[in-house]
Amino acid sequence: MDFTQPIEISTHNYWVGMYLENDPFQCHPYFIENGDESVLIDPGSMLEFEAVVRNVKSISALSKIKYIILHHQDPDLAAAVPEIEKLINRDDLLIITHSRMVPLVKHYLITSDYYEIDKHEHKLDAGALHLDFLTTPYCHSPGAFVTYEPSTKTLFSGDIFGGIEDSWEFYAGADYFEKAKQFHAEYMPSKDIFNYALSKIEKLDINLIAPQHGSIIERKYIPELIKDMKNLECGLYIEEGYQEELIDTIDDLKKKDMALLESLSHFQILMDTMHEAVIVSNEERLIIDINEATHHIFHYDKDEFLKMKLEDIVSMNSLESFNSALQENYVEPFEVSLVREDGKSIPALVGGRNSTREGQAVRITTVIDLSELKEKEELLFQKAKMAEMGEMIANIAHQWRQPLAIINTIISIIKEKNERAQLEHDDVQSKLHEVGTNIQYMSNTINDFMSFYRPNKDKENFSLHSVVEQALEILRPALSALNIKVVFKQTQVVNVHGYINEYTQVLLALINNAKDVLRHKQSENATIILEIYAKNSEGILEISDNGGGIKEENLKRIFEPYFTTKHKSRGTGLGLYIAKMIIENSMDGELSVSNTEEGAKFCILMKEI
After folding, report:
1. What CATH class is the domain 274-369?
2. CB atoms within 10 A of CB 83
3. CA separation for the pair 273, 264 (Å, rounded)
4. 69-113 pLDDT, tens per residue?
5. For the chain, how far is it from start to end, CA to CA, in angstroms?
6. How far apart are CA 81 and CA 70, in angstroms?
7. Stated pTM of the model
8. Rounded to an integer, what distance in angstroms lies between the CA atom of residue 581 and that of residue 543?
9. Does domain 457-609 have CATH number 3.40.50.150?
10. Where in the chain is the domain with CATH 1.10.287.130?
């Protein structure tokens, strides 16, 4: 075989190197003839420079080379590139390599632009030529890769499959592994890293392997060679003492594995002792595990559960919100209605997290049965309603006091005139009309109160201004009787969406709360200020007073059930708790409290429409 000439190893693919006599470290540049977009692969050092140029010229003009592939950055592969660039003399010449190697190869004073394989989907299309690039990191360079030419099924493998042997042959024989193993044992960093690269390569359909060193390997030897290479101890594995350290590491991993299994066992015990239901489902939402509490809450046996999907335990009216929460990987607890085996709906608080179990993606869902809590909550509402009824009756009494006094006076006048025989027809008519007017006023008062305390079934749009005006109409007599001044500020019209009567209840409770504080303080300039405004698409109503504020230690507890700063005879501790639940649970708003320089300020925040 004449090594002074290029050798065609497959169609349009040439070896263009030189034979270095008595040198076991043979370096092999390759050339892919592709018209004006030809490719030079691993051109080598200045030792091979003249031979490479001569061989390429015998196939094609150097000016037809558009691409130079550098599989790694070592000088035996890349040192001649600057001189070859000058001979090619093309402005569009590209150096094909990995971005990890650009900072290194530039030190050869390369002037051409780079074609970074990791930024071009690891492939090149140049006219009729197509090349695929497979990364083989750390074999032996961080950015190392191999090039596969699929039309001829030729793999240009860089350092991989290279050999250093005095008895060099152009084409490898059956004993090539013996000639190649020393190179790989010393240059590949570890068996694990090398096997990762080999696992990619063995998936290719390869007729020929053309390495940078050693011999060209034909198809018949490739499967066995890869198998032998996979079993080769290399890099760290041949370092003295590393095998012992590796065995110790494996022993430690086994111990950790046993500890993990024990931990999983403890986890299962923990699951079964929890009062909350725990449901594990896969990506298709099929239930794959439950704990004991799940059975007690839903009454299904475990075998029945394992045939169900998550949505099978969700009531129809909650299914849309439940599915939406799962699709958005929602992790915050949310309230839904679930269904037991007997078809009964139960209110529940549901939370969840995405996780993995034995390598499988799973969703861990927790369920808290709120049935008992809802019953207690309903009792709280009823108790609060009773307290509100007392407030309502007191306010009706304030509204009725004056008209009753007027009616009583009219009756006394009619009675006295009748006894003196001075009662005239016109007097009777006039006085009866006046009595009727006051009775109508009292009737309207009752209707107003009944309207405000009647629960809404549907949410509606309403004006904050109208709610404040109506609330003040109810409370104004009681506030006037205590000489409490009311200041109502509104800078803009603000509309919100919710239950208008429940919102009014909250407002009445907050104003009454301020009224009681001011009555207790007996301030000479007692004032309640109501202010409406919008900010960041939120409708805001603030109720503040000059009653001195709330003690710092009570601020955090002010919305707790049964917490009150009033005397037992004047408060149940439920008003503010119920108010907060109405705004935040029923209308998705926010009720908060803070202190100002003069007193307390409650803020109701709801989304503006």
Report:
1. alpha beta
2. 14
3. 14
4. 999 999 999 999 999 999 999 999 999 999 999 999 999 999 999
5. 88
6. 9
7. 0.45
8. 18
9. no
10. 374-454
